[in-house]
Amino acid sequence: xxxxxxxxxxxxxxxxxxxxxxxxxxxxxxxxxxxxxxxxxxxxxxxxxxxxxxxxxxxxxxxxxxxxxxxxxxxxxxxxxxxxxxxxxxxxxxxxxxxxxxxxxxxxxxxxxxxxxxxxxxxxxxxxxxxxxxxxxxxxxxxxxxxxxxxxxxxxxxxxxxxxxxxxxxxxxxxxxxxxxxxxxxxxxxxxxxxxxxxxxxxxxxxxxxxxxxxxxxxxxxxxxxxxxxxxxxxxxxxxxxxxxxxxxxxxxxxxxxxxxxxxxxxxxxxxxxxxxxxxxxxxxxxxxxxxxxxxxxxxxxxxxxxxxxxxxxxxxxxxxxxxxxxxxxxxxxxxxxxxxxxxxxxxxxxxxxxxxxxxxxxxxxxxxxxxxxxxxx
Length: 378
Ligand code: SOE
Description:
The chain is α/β, with parallel strands linked by helices. The chain has 2 domains: 5-133, 3-Layer(aba) Sandwich (Rossmann fold), CATH 3.40.50; 136-376, Dihydrodipicolinate Reductase, domain 2. It contains 10 helices and 17 strands. The protein has helices at residues 15-30, 47-57, 66-71, 87-96, 111-124, 138-148, 184-187, 191-207, 328-342, 352-371; strands at residues 5-11, 36-43, 61-63, 77-80, 100-104, 128-131, 155-163, 210-218, 223-225, 232-234, 240-247, 252-258, 267-274, 277-282, 288-293, 303-307, 375-376. A hairpin with a 2-residue loop joins strand 13 (267-274) and strand 14 (277-282). Helix 1 (15-30) crosses helix 9, helix 5 runs antiparallel to helix 10 (352-371) and helix 8 (191-207) crosses helix 10 (352-371). The protein is globular. The model has no long low-confidence stretch (mean pLDDT 97). The structure holds alpha-L-sorbopyranose (SOE). Residues 164, 194, 198, 266 line the site of alpha-L-sorbopyranose.
């Protein structure tokens, strides 16, 4: 039977435009979806490059103005993979036009922007989701199931870090394509909104809300040439951030992120310590979940490294055979599949409303780094 199409209009063709496109192409091949995603249009300012992107990924048409894309009757879903400063305007216009929306993280540059986006989708009652992809790595999803089943018991500690090293050179400019993450007016913040937002999303999903935080940030390189103006301009983003916090369930949070950890490209790890056991996960070894269960027999008690590739593990029955692993890109495929399957049932998370909670925490972190005080996050 031919499935009804879900016609996608994507805004942005950078790194995230590619991950999302790949996800929509792959999801229907591995998951039984109620609708067939169709790459209907790609929108980007540069017409030639939009055309080349369309040819490579199989988009049927191109646009250079996102307002025209949103006005089209043959688009059901707007996917926002453009830089952060464009998220709010595109999302609000898309909601007003009655389109479903998927938005790359973070939702807004600040919680004030995110709140407006939440108001718009709630008023329009359109399905919405934010691409916090790491939730859908099978080992991370399994951690969620284990915690929800109470296997760790009372949680005492949650610690996470996300380390990179790509901005250490003083010669690296800020702004423009590929480097907008260094320009505060476009990105909103540095590692806090870009990397810690992932850690906070996962943490709150696994361990509940964060009430208050105390933070420090640093900008190691104070000025950089701006790609668009050619002038040396102050750097407004946080290059590094460390914060402590308290979860509503009484457990303690410690988080760290930097783009100045030489040798680390994307070291995202988290560890959770509970009354009965602990869990540890590392993006560089993403199909493994390290698990310690204190209830094991004494002499053989120890950390187990569980290879999350069995058919019974989350999502894994959709892929190859036991023992064969999947990777980073499949986390996006799972997210696209869950969104499309959720259209006929309950909304797939994280919704805009969920992502707003993350932005409230990142705002509180940045506020605390300014004031030197504990700040209320929720
Ligand atoms: C930054 O380098 C970045 O690409 C983030 O923007 C992504 O969200 C993260 O998943 C990987 O690192």
